[in-house]
Every structure is written in structure tokens, then in C-alpha cells.
Specification:
This protein is an alpha/beta fold and about 200 residues long. It has helices spanning about 20-25, 45-55, 65-70, 80-100, 115-125, 135-145, 150-155, 185-195, and strands spanning about 30-35, 60-65, 105-110, 130-135, 175-180.
């Protein structure tokens, strides 16, 4: 699916309020925390817990969850490689807007292809923080919170990542979380520590 510019005679309009203004008001910088990993690895669980922990600290953050986005913005996309590519491209662009608004966009998407994640990184530049939720397939399959692996093994779900479609682990993520070894709280703390060390959110005294 092509993402080339089709509209013509359009001009980017700068606002009177800058990103720096919004970040100063918020008391923290905008960023994109991109969780990637197999279905059942814990991406959404950690993302939601991170959002809650940041909220409790007065940090403005919002989770863009894979399933939720497919109910609206991306409801016209399936799970073919082409549709997955467009799914991730759109989320990369939406996350960029969130970061420009001075918010921390937290995304929870399988996003199985390196090239698609690299495109999301290119869209967001230095705002992009890739977090690989590393969890062995057999562990994810034993959890199977939505019963998807069972259906995939039965041939009821085509192009299911890890079973009938590939997952390409990140080569150089900013953070790796071993969700089989770490608790949700420990995982959240590791992300928060990274955000603090990068000066995106203020460190607690």
C-alpha cells in the first residue's frame, strides 16, 4: 500500500503556540514510547500500567493500543504485510502529533516488521523510544489471553504473527523488557527510569 503524497496545493501551517510552549506548560517533554512484541507478551498490560504511573505523577500520556485503533482509525486494514505496513505508518504519524502536542504517546502494537518500525522511527526522529517486550513464543502461547494462538494453531486465523507470519525482533531497541522474568511494576519502573535519564520527564527527588 503506497503512502505517497496524493494531495496537491496544500501548505503546512505553523501555529502560534509552539511545541516548546506546550512542553513548558506540561512540565515534561513529548515523546513516543513504542512497545513491540508478540501477542501475549504483555505490551498492552505494561503500556496501561505505564500510563497510570505517569498519570499519578502528573505526566500527560495516552496509550494508542493496536486493537483499539483497529476499531476506528484503521478499521479498513487487515493483517496482510501491506496492511500491517500502513497500520504502523498511520500510528507513527498519529504518535508524532501527540508528541508535538507535548504528550507522551505510548503505543502497544505487535508491529512485527523491522522496516515498518524503522519507518515509524524515521517519522518521529529522536522522540522515538523502541521498547521490545521480549517473551518466548511458548510463554506467550501459554498465556493466550484472547485465545488467538489456539485459533491460529487450528488454522482459523491466517497470517498470525509467530505462527503463520513472521516476527522480526528489534536489533537495537532503546530498552528490552523480559516480561517472563520481570513483573509489570518492574517493567514500568524500567521505562520510567529511561524517560528520566533522557530528561523527558523530571526525576523524582
Amino acid at each position: 500500500m503506497s503512502s505517497e503524497q496524493k494531495a496537491t496545493n496544500i501548505t503546512w501551517h505553523e501555529g502560534n503556540i509552539t511545541r516548546m510552549d506546550r512542553e513548558r506548560l506540561n512540565g515534561h517533554r513529548g515523546a513516543v514510547v513504542w512497545f513491540t512484541g508478540l501477542s501475549g507478551s504483555g505490551k498492552s498490560t505494561i503500556a496501561r500500567a505505564l500510563e497510570e504511573a505517569l498519570f499519578e505523577r502528573g505526566i500527560r500520556a495516552y496509550v494508542l493500543d493496536g486493537d483499539n485503533i483497529r476499531h476506528g482509525l484503521n478499521k479498513n486494514l487487515g493483517f496482510s504485510p501491506e496492511d500491517r505496513q500502513e497500520n504502523i505508518r498511520r500510528i507513527g504519524e498519529v504518535a508524532k502529533l501527540f508528541a508535538d502536542a507535548g504528550l507522551i504517546a505510548i503505543t502497544a502494537f505487535i508491529s512485527p516488521y523491522r522496516a515498518d518500525r524503522d519507518q515509524a522511527r524515521a517519522i518521529n526522529g529522536e522522540d522515538f523510544i523502541e521498547v521490545y517486550v521480549d517473551c518466548a513464543l511458548d510463554v506467550c502461547e501459554s498465556r493466550d489471553p484472547k485465545g488467538l494462538y489456539q485459533k491460529a494453531r487450528a488454522g482459523l486465523i491466517p497470517e498470525f504473527t509467530g505462527i503463520s507470519a513472521p516476527y522480526e525482533p528489534p536489533l537495537n531497541p532503546e530498552l528490552v523488557i523480559d516480561s517472563a522474568a520481570l513483573s509489570v511494576d518492574e517493567s514500568v519502573r524500567s521505562v520510567i527510569s529511561l524517560l528520566e535519564s533522557r530528561g523527558i520527564i523530571p526525576a523524582r527527588s
